[in-house]
């Protein structure tokens, strides 16, 4: 996906077990941080059809 | 390549006569020049319609999926690699196939030729000794074949079939070090927003006809995700978002399976270089898993198996 233009930092993969609450919090915070940094997405936004 | 025709006809006729195969799959001359069509022959008297030259760009593997009879099939490099992929994916059994191998010197890019003659209507094409002559109403021009190959044939490293029961001619020399992925590398160097613009521009003329999917030998799902309506995975309009989703997903479904045969690009009525999507994935599977699709019969594709040393850097 990064190859077609999704910025690095917007897409995250992680493997978290249901027992790893701390890791979940950590990852979630990190994701929020890096996505905020990337700013609002301009991809895959479907606009309402313009009807005359 | 044209000199193989007689041999192909004889071989097909013999196979059908001896009952070794029930049907022979090859190419015949198209109704339009430079567009040869796949054909299934089951009557030995009709083996004479079989044809082979540098305009046989579609992949014959589309026609063997799920068949239960005995099949004779023509296989150049690409076709043979897709046959192997089909065998691995249980779409056909090796015992059902009698593969007639053809060393292939590449397929002509009909669009490039069309451009070279200024869009004038080509009525006939004749091939000889690495050159081909196109004729129209009041023109005749000769081109060097090596300069008008399809992009994937330009950088081909598998001219010879990787699997066959019989080969029509001596295997030809494979090209050594070709820079297969220079175009992908150029995109990799771009900024994210440039990449997005590049691909958006690329597919801006897409009419969602799905010719690329239909021409692709890998796309044999009974119902394609784009045709599903319950649930509907992707919008059916030509909204740029829907179109992009289609192209990305189409490419992903081919990851580690694509042989870069170029059928998708050839079939596209809008001339979109759709291989740009699959090529990146081919490059990645080659770099990360040391894998090129359709070369060996006894190995599962990388996305189908788990290995302890699998590439893992993207996950945390």
Account of the protein in words:
The complex is a heterodimer of chains A (52) and B (316). Chain A is mainly α and 52 residues long. Chain A has one helix spanning 21-38. The longest helix of chain A is centred in the middle third of the chain and has 18 residues, at 21-38. Chain A is elongated. The termini of chain A are far apart. The model of chain A has no long low-confidence stretch (mean pLDDT 87). Chain B is 29% helix and 13% strand. Chain B has ten helices and nine strands. Chain B has helices spanning 5-17, 77-88, 110-116, 151-154, 182-188, 192-202, 211-215, 240-253, 263-267, 275-289, and strands spanning 23-28, 37-41, 50-51, 71-75, 97-101, 124-128, 131-135, 140-144, 166-167. The mean pLDDT of chain B is 91. The chains are: A mainly alpha (52), B alpha/beta (316). Chains A and B meet through loops of A and helix 6 and helix 8 of B.
Rg of chain B over CA atoms, rounded to whole Å, is 20 Å
Derived from helix and strand composition plus strand pairing, the structural class of chain B reads: alpha/beta
Task: Estimate what percentage of residues of chain B fall within beta strands.
Answer: 5-15%
Largest interface, by Cβ-Cβ below 8 angstroms: which chains and how many residues each?
A: A-B, 18 and 22 residues
Which SSEs are present, and which pair or pack?
The complex is a heterodimer of chains A (52) and B (316).
Chain A: H1 21-38
Chain B: H1 5-17, E1 23-28, E2 37-41, E3 50-51, E4 71-75, H2 77-88, E5 97-101, H3 110-116, E6 124-128, E7 131-135, E8 140-144, H4 151-154, E9 166-167, H5 182-188, H6 192-202, H7 211-215, H8 240-253, H9 263-267, H10 275-289
Parallel strand pairs in B: 1-4, 4-5, 5-9
Antiparallel strand pairs in B: 1-2, 1-3, 6-7, 7-8
């Amino acid at each position: 996906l990064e190859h077609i233009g999704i910025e690095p930092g917007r897409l995250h993969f992680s493997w978290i077990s249901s027992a790893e609450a701390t890791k979940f919090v950590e990852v979630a915070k990190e994701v929020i941080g890096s996505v905020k940094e990337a700013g609002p997405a301009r991809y895959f936004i479907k606009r309402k059809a313009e009807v005359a | 390549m044209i000199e193989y025709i007689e041999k192909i006809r004889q071989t097909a006729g013999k196979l059908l006569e001896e009952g070794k195969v029930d049907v022979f799959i090859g190419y015949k001359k198209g109704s339009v020049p430079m567009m040869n069509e796949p054909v299934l022959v089951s009557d030995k008297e009709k083996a004479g319609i079989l044809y082979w030259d540098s305009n046989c760009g579609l992949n014959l593997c589309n026609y063997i999926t799920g068949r239960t009879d005995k099949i004779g099939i023509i296989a150049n490099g690409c076709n043979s690699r897709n046959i192997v992929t089909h065998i691995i994916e249980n779409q056909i059994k090796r015992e059902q196939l009698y593969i007639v191998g053809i060393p292939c010197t590449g397929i002509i890019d009909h669009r490039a030729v069309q451009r070279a003659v200024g869009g004038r209507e080509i009525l006939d094409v004749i091939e000889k000794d690495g050159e081909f002559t196109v004729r129209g109403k009041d023109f005749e021009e000769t081109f060097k074949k090596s300069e008008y190959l399809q992009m994937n044939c330009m950088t081909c490293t598998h001219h010879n079939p990787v699997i066959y029961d019989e080969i029509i001619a001596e295997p030809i020399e494979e090209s050594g070090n070709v820079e297969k992925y220079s175009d992908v590398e150029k995109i990799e160097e771009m900024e994210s927003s440039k990449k997005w613009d590049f691909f958006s521009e690329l597919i801006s003329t897409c009419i969602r006809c799905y010719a690329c999917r239909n021409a692709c030998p890998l796309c044999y799902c009974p119902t394609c995700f784009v045709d599903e309506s319950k649930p509907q995975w992707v919008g059916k309009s030509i909204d740029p978002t829907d179109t992009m989703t289609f192209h990305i997903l189409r490419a992903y479904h081919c990851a580690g399976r694509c042989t870069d045969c170029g059928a998708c690009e050839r079939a596209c009525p809008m001339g979109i270089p759709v291989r740009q999507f699959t090529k990146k994935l081919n490059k990645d599977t080659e770099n990360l898993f040391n894998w090129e699709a359709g070369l060996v019969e006894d190995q599962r594709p990388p996305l189908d198996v788990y290995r302890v040393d699998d590439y893992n850097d993207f996950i945390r």
